Structures are given as C-alpha cells and as structure tokens.
Amino acid sequence: MILSFLRRRRPSDVIEDLYQRVAGAARQPALYLELGFPDTAEGRFEALALHVALIVRRLKALPDPASDAAQDLVDVMFRELDRALRELGTSDLAVPKRMKALAGVFNDRMRRYAAALEADDEPELRRLLALRLGEPAERHAALAAYVRASAHHLDSLNFDSLLQQSAPFPPAARFVERTSK
C-alpha cells in the first residue's frame, strides 16, 4: 500500500509533510502555556526534538523502508534548523559548529527518551523532562502523560498510517485538563 502512496507523491514530499505535522504538534500552545516548555528558541528546540524523537522511535521499530524514512525525517529537521539559525543571523562559519552541537544534543535526547519509554520508567521520563525544562520532576506529570500517550498512539500505527495520519500526536491540552482535576 505504501508503494502506491509513494508513487503518487515523491518520497521527499511525504517526509516533508510528516515533518510539518510533527513541527505543528511541537508548536501546540498548551505545551508552552501549561506543560512546561519555555517559549524560547531553546524551548522550541526541546519540543521539536521530543516530537521528532517519538516519531523516529516508532519508525525504527517498523520494517524497512521505515528506517530510511526516520533518517530522512531527521535530515529534514536539521535542514530546517540550519535555515532557522541562518535567519536568526548566525554566521556562516558558526552554523556548522552549532549544527554539530544540536545533532549531539538531539541524539542524546532521542536515546534517553526511547530508553525511558521502553522501560516504562515514568520517574526517569519525568527526570529527563526536568533536566531539559527545569523545575522539579514532579511538576512534569502532565507532560510525561502526554509523552507516554503519544508514544502509545504512535506504537499503534503502521508505516502507512504514520506517514498519512493528519495528527500523529494527541492534543496536548487534553493532558492539562485531565491531570489538573
């Protein structure tokens, strides 16, 4: 089925669309207003890195060509980060150094989030979120619930569904209401 979908569209367009949906999920206002991400460049990177890491985690668990799609998604993210750094006025000489640092940070985040989710270790997930976002780990219960629900939902999707689903993440605001009552 995915082959017929890819024949209708260039594979790069499919991954670009997936990236736009993931980036849109990382910009949900509730993530910043209620769930602890600071509305700064660093906070936006953390939200994007978390969401891409969740998608990559799922893609790596699926049979090929999903691993290629995971790498393509990461490539698109870093192409967009490169563009954003340049738009913010980062010099041409500094961009490669910043990109190398961001790649290391992203790979570390991706590995640690995946390990906490695979171990179903909520205290560790909260601790990781607190390291990234500050405040005591206990303050990140709603965000941890959002991350776990997102991972659970993504785990239910096959490759075709993952590439085609319009909203691969649940609404973040739903977790604010549920955990604050």
Present the secondary structure layout.
Layout lengths: L1 H7 L2 H16 L2 H5 L7 H21 L4 H22 L6 H25 L3 H12 L7 H15 L3 H6 L8 H8 L1
Helix pairs in contact: 2-4, 2-5, 4-5, 4-6, 4-8, 5-6, 6-7, 8-10
Describe the model.
By secondary structure, this protein is an all-alpha fold. The protein has one domain (2-73, 110-180). It has 10 helices and no strands. Helix 2 (11-26) crosses helix 4, helix 2 (11-26) crosses helix 5 and helix 4 crosses helix 6 (94-118). It is globular, with a radius of gyration of 16 Å. The relative contact order is 0.16.
Considering the chains and any ligands shown, give keywords for the structure.
single chain, 181 residues, mainly alpha, 10 helices, globular, Cytochrome b pre-mRNA-processing protein 3, Ubiqinol_cyt_c_chaperone_CPB3, Ubiq_cyt_c_chap
Summarize the structure.
The protein is mainly alpha-helical and 181 residues long. The protein has helices spanning 2-8, 11-26, 29-33, 41-61, 66-87, 94-118, 122-133, 141-155, 159-164, 173-180.
